[in-house]
Amino acid sequence: MPEVEIGGARLFYRLEGDKAPLLLIPGLGMDHSYYNFGIPLLARHFAVYAVDPIGIGQSSKPAPPYSVEGWADDFAALIEKLGRGPVHVLGSSLGGAMALALAVRHPAAVKSLIVVGGFSELDRATEMNFRLRLRLIDKLGLGDEVADYMGLWTLTRNFINSDRGLAVMRANQANIRSNSVELYRAFVLSLLRWGRCEPEQHAEPKFTSELGKIRAPTLVVTSDNDHLIPASLSELIAAKVIGARLSVLSGAGHIPFMEQPDKVVPLVVDFINSLPVR
Fold first, then answer.
1. Does residue 39 contact residue 5 with C-beta atoms inside 8 Å?
2. What burial letters (b/e) apply to 137-174, b meaning 16+ CB within 10 Å?
3. CB-based contact 263:236 (threshold 8 Å)
4. 10-35 pLDDT, tens per residue?
């Protein structure tokens, strides 16, 4: 399987398709299978590079800590080694934060930017949600209770009530539980640091203040039934990135690539196809 070496670590990716390159960055603690339902559809239009961020899946797993900015630097190195840049970049959830950091830190690597259910900062309720997740992990590990807690926050009631939705939730849980407790805890901490939520960070400006530096054409996608990352955080990104477009999916949850791939993929394809050829 394809991989590249970055700073002594292996970064794994799955490649499908042979047209313009599109990098897919998954959400918190999940590997490239996060996009299993979207990859076949996207590969009709793009060369899809679906990555396992370092620390996850088939990539190397160095000891913590991890950071959103560090992952962004890894992806910039990947793009350079592939020799296909700049590329279209799509990130979902924590992967959306990584995509934002990539666009700010390495603008020459990013041809266009798509952020799905992403965030440049956290509101109080979202921070509380992730801190509760940490406390549950500390008490229960990555057991059934924590797995169900994550599933109920990331997928909609209607989806979970369907046989397909329940199967998807169980597959997600198995994917997340393939992480060690130490690593998964480190990923959640990286998310809180990204949100500038740690006590020593209270005087630091939020990453939102950096969004005006992004010059890549940007699409921000949110869902009206996302209970984990509210639409207001996507609206904030769209308001701060110059010229960004905002699309709101109806009835989807936090991971539309699992619940509504037939709706979110056309948004991505239409957006990229609408860009000037350069």
1. no
2. beeeebeeebbebbbeebbbeebbeeeebeebbeebbe
3. no
4. 999 999 999 999 999 999 999 999 99
Which amino acid is located at 86 in the chain?
P
Residue ranges of the chain whose pLDDT lies below 50: none
Separation between Cα atoms, residue 86 and residue 76, nearest integer Å: 10
Instruction: Give the other-Cβ count within 10 Å of 267's Cβ.
Output: 18
Q: Is 168:159 a contact under the CB 8 Å cutoff?
A: yes
Closest CA to 170 of 137, 148, 142, 145: 148
The one-letter code for the residue type at 39 is: I
pTM over 0.85: yes
13: DSSP letter: E
> What pLDDT, on a 0 to 100 scale, did the predictor assign at position 11?
98
pLDDT of residue 258: 97
What are the backbone dihedrals phi and psi of residue 142, each rounded to the nearest 5 degrees, phi first? Answer: -100, 55
Instruction: Tell how strand 110-116 and strand 87-92 pair up.
Output: parallel
Which residue reads 């998954």 in tokens? 26
Which value, in Å, is the radius of gyration of the alpha carbons in the chain?
17
| Residues in CB range of 49: below 8 A, 6 or more apart | 13, 14, 15, 21, 22, 23, 24, 78, 82, 87
Would you state the structure tokens that stand for residue 256, as one six-digit string? 């539309």
Alpha helices in the chain (DSSP H): 39-42, 68-82, 94-105, 124-140, 144-154, 157-160, 163-176, 181-194, 231-240, 256-259, 261-273
Q: What is the pLDDT of residue 214?
A: 98
